[in-house]
Design brief:
Blueprint (H helix, E strand, L loop, with lengths): L8 H35 L3 E5 L5 H4 L3 H15 L3 H41 L3 E2 L5 E3 L2 E7 L9
Helix pairs in contact: 1-3, 3-4
Length: 153
């Protein structure tokens, strides 16, 4: 059994604030593609780029936040590392919660992609294979308002 480490509150609160700001910024940056795509669809842009793999991120990585909030609360209340307090069963439960959010993110991505494609096709957009691509950030499906816009530049 490992010795328990006492965590001083004067160090844990600022560390949590920095971690929360960092993760919030990362979450917003990763969700930007989703938000921009929704804006493009709603505003009727001529070219709409859907990052297919990026659609799971807004909900999928959100599961880390309950884990951090509960862990932080336990650390502040007990002055001990959260993993020492809630043990192996608690750690397994938190892993299940994070995994459930990742699974919900995948379902969310599938539903969102289907809705986006149906909305675009119902409003007269066409899939443009020459502009669609696979990048480091995922598969990008491009839809255009008129066939003339579908050409590589």
């Amino acid at each position: 059994m490992q010795p328990q480490i006492e965590v001083p509150r004067s160090k844990s609160i600022p560390a949590f604030a920095v971690l929360l700001l960092l993760l919030g910024g990362i979450w917003l940056a990763l969700s930007k593609d989703f938000i921009v795509t929704l804006d493009d669809i709603n505003s009727g842009k001529e070219i709409v780029d859907i990052n297919v793999y990026g659609l799971w991120l807004p909900l999928g990585i959100f599961g880390i936040f309950p884990y951090l909030f509960v862990g932080f609360g336990v650390t502040i209340a007990t002055k001990k590392k959260a993993s020492d307090v809630w043990g192996q069963k608690g750690q397994m439960a938190s892993n299940i919660v994070v995994g459930m959010f990742a699974g919900l993110g995948i379902v969310f991505a599938f539903v969102c992609f289907s809705w986006m494609v149906n909305t675009l096709e119902n409003t007269g957009y066409n899939y443009c294979k020459p502009l669609s691509r696979i990048s480091a950030m995922g598969r990008h499906d491009v839809y255009v308002a008129s066939p003339e816009l579908c050409s590589k530049k």
